[in-house]
Design brief:
alpha/beta; eight-stranded mixed β-sheet; eight-stranded parallel beta barrel; 22 helices; globular
Length: about 550
């Protein structure tokens, strides 16, 4: 068969070659007409299926947290919430009472909600996939359907699917699966994020053309360029098969003309620290503390938080560990906290807004734990506040930090004073970067949120995936404005969004003046190699051309030449 190439969005800078295995969700339901239904029995069957599904989800959540990361595993919390939604449960029981078999009632009840979410804008539309995952799980249990074991596929398999849910992707074994490609999805979808965490070659959003690929055909998955090559020639096959990524560089790196750039890791739980160190991370550029608050019924104690941060500092005794204070709200929900139901939670009470108001006691406790760990740990602690949009928020956070420092007994106040910074995630913060930088030691750009707010494009809504691209001129100008303002105030600037982990953009980011890049551990070797091969003076000129471009295509032309 002749070679052909399909195009999508690369999710991981890795390539793999293997034989196609199509993964589907075909579940056959009986025609309810003429079927005699015992409502009591059907409702009991539904309840049993819910109990089993809950047990599966809890088990998969635990396994995913251990294997992939706590941030990624948190999506299963949303699945459990949907599973226990009383509105859906009541609808199923009503339909069963009216004569529908339990599987048909589940399909209809979830279908109504899926349709509602699909009609919404932004991130809420993505909830439809979560609902499908829960629905299909229940239908499989109610119909005694077999679940394809994605964790036990033949070695060298390439999985193709219309979409892969979090529970699907979490099953994939990188030792057996050579990669995957999906019809739908974007670079920041759950499947793409899981792929990066697993260092698994992946291309998402290929479109309907992917369905033309037959089972058992040989394909190359190029997660860097976003290509799916069907029936590859010997050269392409050999290149993909030999791709194991760049060599690990343990030393810090600098450009060819001597500019040092720190390359750090984004970490979501203690188990990821060793992996980051093994991949050559200079330190931790984003330590998400949410993992300590999840999968439990009460908040962690001050001592628990101290121990977790102390472990990170001791893992990088010669490096810096940037700890982000509790960042919940939006899609990050903690069951035992009173998070409001908001029409658009990403524009609501989240990040520092909660820490300064309903979660102020938790905030103070966390700051005390961080200050104690910073005084006792081997590495250098830096504290970072999320989603700061105003000077008033920053000053209130700094006042709380000062109060916590005064409360930390047994330590010299000067000894516990860490570097302090804020995340630049909103247009307001980018516009006010000079005033923010005058009050702190560093700024860290979170490109995932900054891009969605600058472009008014939800980062997980594939309908606006074209707009959720940090190389749009508007986003590049926000980045440049932030860097320029910070450097004028002698503050350093890092980046901890997905953009920082894309080796193809490393030269651009160095040219824009970033002092630190932090990313998923999988791409640290590639980014370090890219930094060491970059000439800063030439990159700076290219960065200027890119930020002054009028269109994204002009930016890409500048970056690619």
């Amino acid at each position: 068969m002749a070679e052909r190439t399909l195009h999508g969005t690369g999710a991981t800078p890795r390539s793999g070659v293997g034989s196609v295995v199509w993964y589907g969700r075909d579940i056959s339901l009986l025609d309810p007409d003429g079927v005699e239904v015992d409502p009591e029995t059907e409702i009991e069957r539904f309840a049993d299926a819910v109990d089993t599904a809950r047990t599966e989800l809890e088990s998969e959540r635990e396994a995913t947290a251990e294997r992939v990361g706590e941030d990624e595993a948190a999506v299963f919390d949303a699945h459990i919430q949907f599973l226990e939604d009383p509105t859906i449960e009541d609808a199923v029981e009503t339909m069963v009472s009216e004569g529908l078999p339990a599987p048909n009632a589940v399909d209809a009840a979830f279908g109504e909600h899926i349709e509602q979410f699909e009609g919404m804008d932004g991130r809420m539309a993505e909830r439809a996939d979560d609902l499908r995952d829960v629905r299909d799980r229940l239908l499989r249990l109610l119909t005694d359907g077999e679940r394809v074991d994605l964790g036990d596929l033949p070695e060298g398999s390439v999985v193709l699917a219309e979409r892969l849910t979090p529970s699907d992707t979490a099953q994939l074994d990188p030792e057996r699966v050579a990669g995957f490609a999906t019809v739908t999805g974007g670079r920041t979808s759950h499947a793409a994020i899981f792929a990066r965490s697993l260092a698994l070659p992946a291309v998402v959003g290929v479109g309907d053309a992917l369905e033309s690929v037959e089972g058992e055909e040989e394909v190359v998955i190029d997660g860097d360029s976003g290509k799916v090559v069907v029936s590859p020639d010997d050269t392409e096959r050999a290149a993909a098969a030999s791709d194991s990524g760049a060599a690990v560089v343990d030393e810090s790196v600098e450009t060819t003309d001597g500019r040092h750039v720190e390359v750090a890791a984004n970490v979501g739980r203690p188990a990821e620290l060793d992996s980051a160190a093994e991949r050559g991370a200079d330190g931790v550029g984003l330590y998400r503390t949410e993992f300590l608050f999840l999968d439990r019924e009460t908040p962690p104690s001050e001592d628990e938080q101290y121990e977790a941060v102390r472990e990170a500092l001791d893992t990088f005794p010669d490096g810096r560990v940037v700890v982000r204070t509790l960042d919940i709200g939006g899609d990050k929900r903690i069951p035992y906290l009173d998070l409001p139901e908001e029409g658009n939670p990403f524009l609501g009470e989240r990040g520092i807004r909660r820490s300064l108001n309903p979660d102020s006691d938790l905030f103070a406790t966390q700051l005390r734990a961080l200050l104690r760990a910073g005084a006792d740990g081997a590495g250098d602690l830096a504290i970072m506040f999320p989603l700061v949009a105003t000077i008033e928020e920053l000053e209130a956070a700094l006042d709380t930090l000062d109060a916590a420092a005064a409360e930390v007994g047994g330590h010299d106040a000067d000894a516990v004073a860490p570097e302090v910074g804020v995340m630049i995630e909103t247009p307001s913060a980018a516009f006010m970067a000079d005033e923010l930088a005058a009050r702190v030691d560093f700024l860290s750009i979170g490109t995932n949120d900054l891009t969605q707010y600058v472009m008014a494009a939800d980062r997980e809504n594939e309908r606006v995936d074209d707009l959720h691209d940090p190389t749009h001129p508007g986003v590049l100008r926000a980045i440049h404005r932030t860097v320029t303002a910070a450097h004028a105030e002698d503050a350093w600037v890092g980046m901890c969004g997905e953009m920082a982990g894309d080796p193809a953009l490393t030269e651009l980011l160095v040219g824009l003046g970033l002092d630190e890049l932090s990313m998923s551990a999988v791409t640290i070797p590639e980014v370090k190699t890219a930094v060491s091969e970059t000439e800063y003076s030439a990159a700076s000129e290219r960065g200027d051309r890119a930020r002054l471009a009028a269109t994204r295509s002009e930016v890409h032309t500048t970056v690619d030449t």
